[in-house]
Amino acid sequence: MHILILVRADYWKSQAKKFCEYCKCWIADNIPSVEFHENGKRHKENVKRRLSEIGKKSRQEHQKSIKVDAQIKKMEEAALKAYMKDVEENADFSSQLIKEKLSQQQRQQDADGMGASPAGSAVAETTKVWYEAQSDEGHVYYWHIETGESRWEPPEEEYLSLTEQKKVEGKALKNKKEKKRKEKAEDARMKEEERARLERERMRSRRVKEEDTKTAETPMPVLGPAPRVDPYGSWKPVEIREPMPVDLQLPEQEYVQIKVPAIMEPKVEFREKTFSCLGDDDRAVETGFKRRKFNCNPKRSMRQRLDQDE
Hints:
It is a single chain. By secondary structure, the chain is α+β, with helices and mostly antiparallel strands. Among the domains are: about 15-60; about 90-195, no CATH class. Helices cover about 50% and strands about 5% of the residues. It is built from six helices and six strands, in the order ββααααββββαα. The strands form two sheets. The protein has a four-stranded mixed sheet with strand order 5-4-3-6. Strands 1-2 form a two-stranded antiparallel ribbon. α2 (about 40-90) packs across α3. The model is unreliable at about 115-125 (pLDDT under 50).
């Protein structure tokens, strides 16, 4: 069996770098390097220069926006003056706008059923063809919505005053708001009906699921004899029975009894030792020590010559 051992090779990982937007250079992405670079004189000068450029650019954009607003305001004033001049020179232009507005209001009133009566509206359309208007200087004049004729003096026929025009506009605005309110109410009603329908569908599906689970959980009736109260019987004491001896029909042998001798331990006997006397007689005996004699034969301790030269 061969064992394959895999050894991973070493790999090189480059150091992370960070780009400085103010100095346009790369630095090492670690805390000491970043702090050293940010505390440098060159970096601080670049940051100060960038902030001054941003402030200068913002001031220029502000001045430019002011100029644009002033130009737009001049254009609006010029357009308003031209419009008023056209109205004074040609009243038919304003009459067309008012006729379109009135026709739109009338159609809205007819559609909603909240306008004036047909007879009154017909009278207003047929009789009140003159409308009262007011110029920029505050002068009141009258103009005909069909012919476009204008005059300073009030006409002999009936005309629609500024107050009545405001009432008509207010009524049209009211009808418009009422219509929007009704549309919102109708949308809310439709949304509520849709929500109720979805809720009913959800409840119906939930009820069907509950019924299915109940039918699945209800056990089926068992047909057949009733089960016994004690199906395994009553308790009984266990009787231990000895097995019967088995006759192996082996040959019979005579039994001779052998006497085994008993091992007797030897009897230990103790004897008494007697002393002749113990007393003052021993003290009378003199005890002496024999002194050793040194150098009794000095020749033995001396080196003797074994071979004699003749």
